[in-house]
From TrEMBL:
Active-site feature positions: 196, 350, 380
GO molecular function, one term: carboxylic ester hydrolase activity
Record PANTHER family: AB HYDROLASE SUPERFAMILY PROTEIN C4A8.06C, ALPHA_BETA HYDROLASE FOLD-3 DOMAIN-CONTAINING PROTEIN
Protein name according to UniProt: Alpha/beta hydrolase fold-3 domain-containing protein
GO CC entries: membrane
Domain called Alpha/beta hydrolase fold-3: residue spans: 118-259, 318-383
Upper lineage: Eukaryota, Metazoa, Chordata, Craniata, Vertebrata
Keyword match rRNA-binding: no
The keyword Nuclease is assigned to this record: no
Organism: Anolis carolinensis
Family: Belongs to the 'GDXG' lipolytic enzyme family.
Amino acid sequence: MLLASLLWTLVSYLSVFVLVFLFVRGVCYDIARTHIPQGVPQSRIMRFTNFVTRALMLLGVILEKLGICHRYKIWRVIINGIPLKKSSKLTIKDLFFDEIPVRVYWPKTSSAGNRRGVVLIHGGVGLFGSIQAYERVSRYIARKSDSVVVSVEFCLAPEHLFPAPVLDCCTATTHFLKNATKYGVDPNRIVVCGDSSGGTFAAAVSQHLATKKDLPKLRAQILLYPFLQVMDFNLPSYQQNHSVPPLFKKRAIKLGITYLTGKHLNVDGCMRNAHVPPDMWVKYRQWINPDYIPDEFKARGYVPMEPDPFNQEVYEQFKEAGNIMFAPLVAEDDMIRQLPETFLVTCEYDVLRDDGLLYKKRLEDNGVPVTWHHIKDGFHGIMFFIDYGPLETPSARSGFKRLIHFLEGL
């Protein structure tokens, strides 16, 4: 009995040691293959976010393997962070917009009439993120722009796969447009806003509502470094920033596939564009083409690449490449022409930079006014850290200053 107890204790300690070793080894390996660009003055913040992101991902995988919880559960809990104290400048309420949970922020200052409204859609690839995680962003926009902000708590994958999360955002935004005055908002001054995949959702919501004749038109859309297409993963920015944290090229594709399918699949074929049928290349090359990227963005080692031969099995992973709810960049011109005025942010050290540049061109070619802010030393997710103390960067503050100025002009 004593021997069995000793053996069990030994095995337990050994298991913990192996798990810790694998965890540390995984983090160190990831750091070793990470590229921190010289043009980023806040490299310490980039390193920190990369370390935390990788550590969370590894921890989630380990807990899932042990059968303790799904990997995304731990990500969601930690990303939510510590709840903020009650705001003295805002009235904040949790409500439901047609059964979709939302958090609404009203400035306490007096207003001569109905205010501007902002629908905020958080990032997280539809897998994590929440109104709690984006509390600082929501409060900042509400305070600084004197707007009523509605942060949407849409459902998440893999429990609820595409298109359920983006449809929740459409439902909440539709409710807000229909009932704006009830919340002290001018229905003709409602803006939809999102960062990263939240920007994808915001673009999809704008397109979805653009043809609705029974609703007030959205006044504008704000897209912060959005993910907009899954056709070409070898555009200049995908090549230049493939190992720049926190959104590596491979990580972006893996998370996108998980959002679509709920599965963790091999993405090597997708990384070489083997997922695109020849007829699809012919159709969408008119919009998704490296030739449309200005030369100034090709300086850092871009090499034109031909896609690998089409692979049907790989294609099955990204069959939604032509679905505008998932890839708004491939919407037809007739749809693009109906979109509202746009504020667009891109970051130099972000794999998604060229998605934004191509969407900017499409919007402008179709007569949609675009205010573009390019963060030359920025990386993916940089504006999430507004009001995060030492994690906030001057570039994030500058980006929000431009965003607030845009809102004030509406």
